[in-house]
Amino acid sequence: MGIEEKLPSGVLLSTVEGLVGYFRKASFWPVTFGLACCAIEMMTYGAPVYDSGRWGQEVFRASPRQADLMIVAGRVSQKMAPVVRQIYDQMPNPKYVLAMGVCASSGGMFNNYAIVQGVDHIVPVDMYLPGCPPRPEMLIDAMFKLMDKVQHQPLGPNRVRAELEREARQLAAIPSEEMKGLLR
């Protein structure tokens, strides 16, 4: 016999972290930031056919000071890297980054000195979206996964503890040069 049976119907039980996570996931404001062909697919995601407004993301902000999500859509050149970092630094916390396309994730087919081989060398990336270019449906799926991550993200001291645990797990992971078989 739990507390749920003693309460009248219509009473909702939750935690502050649960409520804050629910509200934060439903109010992403992406910064307008497209670098190459993936930006066309990102624009299509905001168009009426796919309608990102259904999930509270219809407001693509022109100012990074009003945005909490950076979708890096396309390849990042060495000249553009400081600008990407500056825009990221201007965003208020909590802020999230989605690397859209294979060029933003790993440099893509441009394996040369002019292109940054992954935007994670410049800013911390929360979600990777593969494809060349990825379809708007794939961006919708990545946004849902990012929303789920944000909703279940702890707050305050719990967040600091979770980040320290995640860092310890990553440091204890097997280095890629020691992996055998198909994982090489």
> What would you call the structural class?
alpha/beta
Q: How much β-strand is present in the residues?
A: 5-15%
Give the CATH topology.
Answer: Rossmann fold
The DSSP helix count reads: 7
| CATH architecture classification | 3-Layer(aba) Sandwich
Distance between the termini: 53 Å
> What overall geometry do the principal axes of the alpha carbons give?
globular
Give the rounded overall mean pLDDT.
80
- In this structure, how is the largest beta sheet organized? 4 strands, parallel
Low-confidence region ranges: none
Strand order of the largest sheet: 1-2-3-4
Q: Give the fraction of residues assigned to helices.
A: 25-40%
* CATH class term: Alpha Beta
Radius of gyration: 19 Å
Following the backbone from N to C, one meets helices and strands in this order, namely: HHEHEHEHEHH
- Number of separate domains: 1
Characterization of the model:
It is a single chain. By secondary structure, this protein is an alpha/beta fold. The protein has one domain: Rossmann fold (3-Layer(aba) Sandwich), CATH 3.40.50.12280. The protein is about 40% helix and about 10% strand. The chain has 7 helices and 4 strands; from the N terminus they run H-H-E-H-E-H-E-H-E-H-H. It has helices spanning about 5, 15-25, 40-45, 80-90, 100-105, 135-150, 155-170, and strands spanning about 30, 70-75, 95-100, 125-130. It has a 4-stranded parallel sheet. Strand 2 (about 70-75), helix 4 (about 80-90) and strand 3 (about 95-100) form a beta-alpha-beta unit. The longest helix is centred in the last third of the chain and has 17 residues, at about 155-170. The protein is globular, with a radius of gyration of 19 Å. The model has no long low-confidence stretch (mean pLDDT about 80).
